[in-house]
C-alpha cells in the first residue's frame, strides 16, 4: 500500500464507520459546525446580501404599488367639447362612451339659461332682454373635477360640491348675499318652454373677478349669476338637450391614446377631443426614476453576490476535493453530495434571512426616510416589512445559493474520483 493510501486510511475508516449511516443534511450540519471560520465568513456574506436585497425589494415593490395606485387615481382623461359650446353631444354618444374599455366615470357638462322664480339675478345694466333677467345653469356630474373649480378660478366658500353622492345647487356668494340666501335654501327656476324645477343650495362659491366685470355684460353671462346644478334638476327643465362637454376618465393612463381613437370614431368634426394626463406624468416621473435606479441596484447586488460567493465556495471546494472523492468511492451519489453542499449554504442563508429581517425591521423606516423624504412621496417612508418582501428575498436568495453552489461544486463532481485519488497519490 502506498504512502498516500496509508495516509488516507484513517479517513476511509472514519467515514466507513459513521458516514454511510448519515444523511446529506446531517453531514452538512456537521461540516458547518467544524469549519467555524468559513461558516462565519459565509454567513456574513449572506447577511450583507440578504439585507441589501430585502431593502431594495421593499423600495421597489413599494414604489411599484404606489405607481399602480397613482395610475388609477390621478384622473387621466379625454375631453370631448363642442366647438361652438352648444349642447351637441347626444345621450346616445355618452352611452357608447361609458361602454369603452378602461372607462371609470364620465363628467357630463351642459349649460342653458333659465329664469329665476323665487330670487333675483344681479343686473349690471337696464335692459328688457330676457337674458338680462336670467341666470345660466351649469349642470355637472362632479363640479370639483372639471371646469373652473378644477382650474381653481372658482373657490368653494361653504358647503360641498355636486357629485354622484350629492345633488343640489351651488351659487355665487354675491348672488347669495344680495338675495339673503344660505345653505339649505330652495331655489326655483323656469325654462323658456315653461318647465319648472327646484333644488336645495349645497354650496356657495367665490371668484374674485365679480367686481371687475363690465356693467354692460348681460345678467345671464355674469359670474354672479352662474348657478351650478346636478343633472337630475337640469334635465327636468331641458330633457334630452345633450351636453356641451364630456370628460371621460380612465383607469389606465397608458391606454389614453387608444381611448382617444375609440372616442374619435363616435363623434363628427363638430366635436374636438383633447387628452389630459399631465398630473399622472408629473407624479410618475420621480417614481419611475426610483424604480429604475432600484432595479439596477438589485441586479448589481445579485451579480456581485453570485461572483463573490462563487469565488469563496470555489476556493473552499478545492480543499474538499479529497473528501468528495472518498465519499463517491464509498458509494455516495453525486446528487447526494450536491444536496449536502446546497444544504450547507442554504442553512447559513436562512439564518442570514432572519438577521436581515430583524435589521430591516429596525432600520427600514430610517432608510425609507432618507430615500423618499425629499420627494413628493414622503408617505412611502411609512412602509413596513411585509410577507411579500420576505418571500421575494427567499426566492432571490435561494436562486443565488443554487447558482453559486452549482458553479463551485460542478468541477469536483464532474471529475473522476479515481483520477482525483491518483493525482493525490502521485
Coarse structural class: alpha+beta
- Low-confidence regions: 1-19
Main beta sheet strand tally, sense and closure: 6 strands, mixed, barrel
Residue share in β-strands: 15-25%
Radius of gyration: 37 Å
SS field, number of helical segments: 13
Give the overall silhouette.
Answer: rod-shaped
State the total count of DSSP E strands.
10
Distance between the termini: 13 Å
How would you state the average pLDDT, rounded? 83
Order of helices and strands: HHHEHEEHEEHEEEHEHEHHHHH
Key features?
426 residues; alpha+beta; 6-stranded mixed β-barrel; 53% helix; disordered N terminus
Question: Can you put this structure into words, describing what you see?
Answer:
This protein is α+β, with helices and mostly antiparallel strands and about 425 residues long. Helix content is about 55%, strand content about 15%. The chain has 13 helices and ten strands. Strands 2-3-8-5-7-6 form a six-stranded mixed β-barrel. β6 (about 185-190) and β7 form a beta hairpin. α3 (about 35-75) crosses α12 (about 385-415). The longest helix is centred in the C-terminal third of the chain and has 41 residues, at about 280-320. The chain is rod-shaped, with a radius of gyration of 37 Å. The two termini are about 15 Å apart. The relative contact order is 0.17. Mean pLDDT is about 85; it is low at about 1-20.
Amino acid at each position: 500500500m502506498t504512502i498516500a493510501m496509508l495516509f488516507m486510511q484513517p479517513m476511509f475508516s472514519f467515514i466507513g464507520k459513521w458516514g454511510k449511516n448519515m444523511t446529506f443534511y446531517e453531514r452538512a450540519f456537521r461540516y458547518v459546525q467544524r469549519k467555524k471560520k468559513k461558516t462565519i465568513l459565509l454567513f456574513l456574506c449572506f447577511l450583507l446580501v440578504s439585507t441589501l436585497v430585502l431593502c431594495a425589494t421593499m423600495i421597489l415593490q413599494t414604489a411599484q404599488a404606489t405607481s399602480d395606485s397613482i395610475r388609477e387615481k390621478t384622473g387621466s382623461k379625454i375631453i370631448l367639447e363642442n366647438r361652438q359650446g352648444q349642447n351637441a353631444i347626444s345621450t346616445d354618444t355618452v352611452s357608447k362612451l361609458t361602454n369603452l374599455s378602461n372607462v371609470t366615470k364620465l363628467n357630463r357638462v351642459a349649460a342653458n339659461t333659465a329664469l329665476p322664480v323665487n330670487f333675483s339675478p344681479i343686473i349690471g345694466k337696464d335692459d328688457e332682454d330676457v337674458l338680462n333677467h336670467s341666470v345660466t345653469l351649469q349642470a355637472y356630474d362632479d363640479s370639483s373635477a372639471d371646469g373652473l373649480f378644477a382650474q381653481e378660478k372658482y373657490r368653494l366658500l361653504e358647503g360641498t360640491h355636486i357629485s354622484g353622492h350629492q345633488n343640489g345647487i351651488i351659487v355665487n356668494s354675491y348672488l347669495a348675499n344680495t338675495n339673503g340666501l344660505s345653505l339649505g335654501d330652495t331655489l326655483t327656476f323656469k325654462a323658456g318652454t315653461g318647465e319648472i324645477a327646484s333644488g336645495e343650495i349645497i354650496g356657495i362659491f367665490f371668484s374674485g373677478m365679480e367686481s371687475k366685470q363690465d356693467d354692460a355684460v348681460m345678467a345671464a353671462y355674469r359670474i354672479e349669476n352662474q348657478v351650478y346644478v346636478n343633472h337630475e334638476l337640469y334635465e327636468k327643465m331641458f330633457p334630452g338637450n345633450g351636453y356641451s362637454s364630456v370628460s371621460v376618465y380612465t383607469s389606465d393612463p397608458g391606454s389614453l391614446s387608444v381611448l382617444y381613437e375609440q372616442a374619435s370614431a363616435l363623434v363628427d368634426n363638430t366635436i374636438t377631443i383633447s387628452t389630459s394626463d399631465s398630473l399622472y406624468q408629473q407624479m410618475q416621473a420621480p417614481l419611475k426614476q426610483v424604480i429604475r435606479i432600484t432595479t439596477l441596484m438589485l441586479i448589481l447586488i445579485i451579480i456581485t453576490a453570485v461572483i463573490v460567493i462563487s469565488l469563496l465556495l470555489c476556493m473552499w471546494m478545492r480543499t474538499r476535493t479529497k473528501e468528495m472523492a472518498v465519499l463517491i468511492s464509498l458509494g455516495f451519489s453525486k446528487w447526494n453530495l450536491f444536496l449536502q453542499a446546497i444544504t450547507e449554504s442554504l442553512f447559513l442563508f436562512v439564518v442570514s434571512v432572519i438577521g436581515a429581517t430583524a435589521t430591516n425591521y429596525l432600520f427600514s423606516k430610517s432608510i425609507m426616510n432618507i430615500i423618499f423624504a425629499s420627494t413628493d412621496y414622503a408617505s412611502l417612508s411609512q412602509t413596513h416589512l411585509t410577507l411579500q418582501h420576505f418571500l421575494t428575498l427567499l426566492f432571490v436568495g435561494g436562486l443565488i445559493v443554487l447558482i453559486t453552489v452549482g458553479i463551485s461544486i460542478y468541477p469536483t463532481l464532474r471529475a473522476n474520483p479515481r483520477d482525483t485519488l491518483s493525482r493525490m497519490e502521485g
